[in-house]
Amino acid sequence: MEHRINILGVHVSAINMDQALEILGGWLSRREPHYVCVTPAHVVMDGYWNPQLRPILNGSGLTTPDGMSIVWLLKLHGFPRAGRVCGTDLMNEVCSASDLRSRRHFLYGGAPGVADALADRLRTRFPGIQIAGTYTPPFRPLTDTEDRAVVERINASRADIVWIGISSPRQDTWMAEHLGKIDAPVMVGVGAAFDFLSGRKRQAPRWIQRIGLEWLFRLASEPRRLWRRYAQYPLFVLLVLLQVLGITRYD
Predict the structure, then answer these.
(1) What digits encode the pLDDT tens for the residues 16-33?
(2) pLDDT tens, 149-168?
(3) The pLDDT of residue 43
């Protein structure tokens, strides 16, 4: 059982990539159903503003530290081995590991054509990988009939891992609602990983990620879409400081 640290009411798993892969492998071996939320600062803020989202993030099998600010907070709380586990890297590492690559993977999400492009990229980069199927949902809530059809499609594929790329908090809510309906033991919400790994969008260079400025790179790339998300980061810093000093507390 991994340790979790309360950050503004969101309980983030104090883990690194190697530990995440080990935990996912255990779930797959035991066919134990779980979902994984990758959690940068803006998702923590989503949970801060929306109390209904917090039980979803806290009820996950893993809520991984996606973002250096989250990693630094985990280290501050006494977990020096904590490391960044973002959706793109997690998907890459799972597909690179021979024992996990051989599992059946289903890709759910992305803009039209992105999931299929990602499937082709993964087959090229990781020979032998089993892509069980793809599905691109419309940008609206599915009807009950559509949702049942999607569940049947995923289950018929006999997928072991379902990768969800519809951005937070939609993907986190979707996974929580489908836990127990989807036969696959592992669901992972990876957000923009579909765009990055398919080649549709450029990811920040590794050195920018390491110094905690990937958000600035993404903001410069898509200012109109992302400015609201990142405008709340100064408030995040203030709220975390108040929590670290013990002035505010979160259940």
Answers:
(1) 999 999 999 999 999 999
(2) 999 999 999 999 999 999 88
(3) 95
By C-alpha distance, which of 206, 196, 209, 208 is closest to 88?
196
Distance CA 185, CA 150 (A): 16
Give a yes or no: residue 251 inside a domain: no
Provide long-range contacts, Cβ within 8 A and 24+ apart, for 229-236: 229/42, 230/42, 232/42, 232/45, 233/41, 233/42, 235/45, 236/8, 236/41, 236/42, 236/44, 236/45, 236/69
- Between the alpha carbon of residue 183 and those of residues 137, 175, 178, 221, the distances in Å are 19, 12, 9, 37
Query: Which range marks the domain in which residue 11 is found?
Result: 4-244
Give the helix, strand, coil percentages of the chain, each rounded to 5. Answer: 50, 15, 35
Find out whether the peptide bond into 169 is cis, omega within 30 degrees of 0: yes
Domain assignment present for residue 249? The answer is no
Tokens of 61: 């099998």
No. of helices (H) and no. of strands (E), the chain: 14, 8
DSSP for 212-250 reads T-HHHHHHHHSHHHHHHHHHTHHHHHHHHHHHHTTSS--
Q: Is residue 77 part of a domain?
A: yes
Q: What is the DSSP string of 29-47?
A: HHT--EEEEEE-HHHHHHH
Domain count of the fold of the chain? 1
**What is the Cα gyration radius of the chain?**
17
Across 53-137, where does the E strand assignment appear?
A: 62-65, 104-109, 130-135
* Verdict on whether the full-model pTM lies above 0.85: yes
Phi, psi at 12, each rounded to 5°: -95, 135
What single letter denotes the amino acid at residue 215?
Answer: W
